[in-house]
Each structure stands twice: as C-alpha cells, then as structure tokens.
C-alpha cells in the first residue's frame, strides 16, 4: 500500500498502479527514482508531510534535495545537466552524491555544481557510488591548500547519549585515515590475541574488549614501508626456482636472478614485489618462515582489499585464502593464493562439485574475481582504492 499510494504523485501511470493491487508494486517501486520524486516534491504534487506520514523517514532529506535540484539557483545550466545525468539514479544514490558534494573543500578546482554533474553520472550500487564519489572528491580536495588542516576540523566523537533496549549506548568517532588505521590496526592485533584465548568471542566483541583493556595507544601514524611494484619486463621469462632465488630467462638467451633483475630495474627500494600481469605475484623465496611473510606482502599489495565485490576489509586484516581448496588439491603457491576477509573466506564455495551457495573467488588474468552462485558474469571489487593495488598498477 505504501508504494502504490506514493505512485499517484510520481508516476504517470498511477491508475494502472491502482488497477491491479500488488501486481504493480514493482512498477511503483521503479517509479521511485530520485528525479521524478524530487520534481513531484518541488512542484507540490507530493507533500513531504504526507510522505513522512506514510513512514518514509528520509522524506525531509528528499525535500532538501528537491530544493537543490529544482529550486532557484544561479547555476541553472549545471543544475539541468546534473538532473539529466542523474536520470535513473535512486533516491539513496542521489543522497550519497549530495553527502560527498558537501565534503568538497573550498578552494578546490571544481565548483559544487560541476562536481554534482560529475557525481550524478556514476552508476552501480549505492555503496559503489558512495565509494567512487568519495574517491573523486578526495582527489579534488588533495589539490586544496591546507586540505589536511581543513579536513582535521571534521574530527569528532559523537553519540553515546541514547540507551537502547539492552541498556547499551553507541558512539562513533571520525579522524584522519592514517591515524584511524594505526589505532584500529593496533586494536585488531590485541583483539586477535583475545580471540585466540577465547574462540567464542566475535571479532566486534574482541575489538571492544581490546579497547577497554587499555587498547591502542594513539601514538600517531605508523611509518609506512614502501612496497615497490614492478611488472615482469618483456625481456624476462620466469624460468625456475633455485633455492631462495628465482631465475629468469632473457630474450637474448642468457639468464638472470630475481635480485639482478630488480637491481637492473630499480635503484634503491624498500620491499620489491615481482608480479606477473596474468598469474599475479611471483614467488621469489622458498625458505618457509620468510616465504610466509613474503607471500603475505605480495598478496596484500596485489589486492589491497579483500577481492570480494563490495568488501572493504583491508588486506592487512585478511586471511590467506586458497583459491583452489587444499582438499581439492590446491597448492600453497602464490598463484593459488589470495587474501580474503574472514567472512568471505568462510563463505567461499570451496567444493566446485557441491551445489553453489555463495559463489567462489577465482584468479583470472588481471586479478582475483568473484564467480556468483547463479552462474552470472564475474564481478570484481571495484573499490577505488584498488586502483592502487599492484595488479591494477601493472595492468593499466
Ligand atoms: Zn571480504
């Protein structure tokens, strides 16, 4: 009823929506695109109070959006362009466009209206649009003088005032990414110790306990270790492993060690990972203890985040996942490995002969992708930060 009622105002086929109750619920939902709804609000065809009465709690926010996209402005041309770019976007998607537009710092190379036109052209799930929009606005903000200082003004710790039915309170805190990563990374390490001692603890519970136990000392960002990524040059072919070293055949018929190849390609570096554009990280060392660490470094830099579509777990908090399961004869070599978060590692359909439930991760040329259980096309994790992953860097 909720949606058929609303369809009266926003859809031209309102009578149809009413004619067959229920059956046209889907078309009523489809009519709930951002632009027609905002236009109906702006022209008064639909009333915000009535919408709130129907239980839409975002109605107030939609009214504000209606004012932006249909209200008076000195930038009518850009406003029109934004509306036409937003054709087909959902209300939630336009909401995240606006949320990210508000994050544009003054002094950026684009105006808020130019930014809206750009962001309204994004497509994908609401989460994907949110991430892509945040990455674009971030890129513009980086060009602003004193950007870090201005953004630091947005630091906060909010909430903690409302008690829920269990007698619990919730607070959220916001701060610069490097500081947050260092702080949460430290908590994560302590939480893992706690979970080893008590496996019944959930990750979230353990993080809370770690915080209470004196938690992370906020000492400031950790110094990053540069991990230089180089793709195998055309003139070198992977030949064999020899003890700790990888041997490459050169096109002139000679051979070269991995260390020599790195020295030839690079001058001074921190950690160097050699990546094959198709098969991923090249296993450079065999010695067991070191190999584990090196594999983790190669795998983490390869993917940056868990490769499951939409996942935001950083590789540093992921587990090493066998793409072909150990039980299925999959080996612990770098080509058969990927980082995956605990959730997506556990949910992966390891047995290719069992009925598909959640789909599986598989290595394809260019990186690890997800094969959905319905046999549909493969999907990658398109989070913008993955453009900095080793595989993206060498394949672009
Ligand atoms: Zn994941």
Automatic annotation (TrEMBL):
Location of the region described as Disordered in the Swiss-Prot/TrEMBL record: 345-380
Domain (HNH nuclease): residue spans on this chain: 293-346
CDD domains for the chain: HNHc (cd00085)
Annotated Pfam families: HNH
Any one GO molecular function term: endonuclease activity
Protein name: HNH nuclease domain-containing protein
């Amino acid at each position: 009823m909720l949606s058929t009622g609303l369809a009266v105002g926003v859809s031209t086929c309102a009578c149809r929506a009413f004619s067959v109750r229920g059956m046209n619920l889907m078309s009523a939902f489809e009519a709930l695109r951002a632009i027609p709804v905002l236009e109906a609000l702006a022209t008064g065809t639909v009333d915000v109070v009535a919408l709130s009465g129907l239980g839409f709690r975002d109605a107030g926010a939609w009214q504000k959006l209606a004012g932006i996209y249909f209200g008076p402005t000195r930038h009518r041309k850009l406003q029109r362009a934004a509306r036409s770019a937003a054709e087909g976007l959902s209300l939630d998607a336009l909401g995240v466009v606006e949320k990210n537009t508000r994050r544009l710092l003054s002094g950026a190379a684009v105006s808020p209206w130019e930014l809206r036109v750009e962001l309204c052209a994004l497509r994908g799930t609401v989460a994907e649009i949110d991430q892509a929009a945040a990455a674009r606005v971030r890129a513009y903000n980086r060009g602003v003088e004193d950007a870090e200082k201005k953004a630091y003004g947005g630091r906060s710790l909010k909430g903690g005032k409302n008690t829920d039915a269990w007698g619990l309170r919730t607070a959220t805190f916001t701060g610069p990414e490097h500081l947050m990563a260092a702080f949460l990374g430290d908590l994560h390490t302590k939480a893992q110790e706690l979970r080893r001692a008590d496996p019944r603890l959930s990750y979230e519970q353990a993080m809370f306990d770690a915080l209470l136990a004196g938690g992370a000392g906020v000492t400031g960002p950790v110094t990053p270790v540069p991990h230089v990524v180089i793709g195998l040059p055309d003139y070198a072919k992977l030949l064999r492993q020899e003890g700790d070293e990888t041997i490459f055949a050169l096109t002139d018929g000679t051979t070269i060690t991995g260390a020599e190849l790195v020295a030839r390609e690079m001058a001074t570096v921190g950690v160097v990972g050699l990546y094959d554009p198709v098969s991923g990280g090249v296993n450079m060392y065999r010695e067991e203890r070191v190999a584990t660490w090196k594999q983790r470094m190669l795998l983490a830099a390869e993917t940056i985040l868990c490769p499951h579509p939409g996942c935001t777990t950083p590789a540093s908090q992921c587990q090493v996942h066998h793409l072909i399961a150990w039980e299925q004869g999959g080996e612990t070599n770098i080509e058969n490995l990927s980082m995956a978060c605990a959730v997506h590692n556990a949910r992966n359909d390891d047995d290719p002969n069992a009925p598909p439930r959640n789909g599986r991760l598989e290595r394809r040329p260019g990186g690890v992708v997800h094969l959905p259980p319905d046999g549909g096309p493969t999907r990658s994790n398109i989070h913008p930060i993955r453009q900095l992953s080793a595989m993206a860097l060498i394949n672009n």
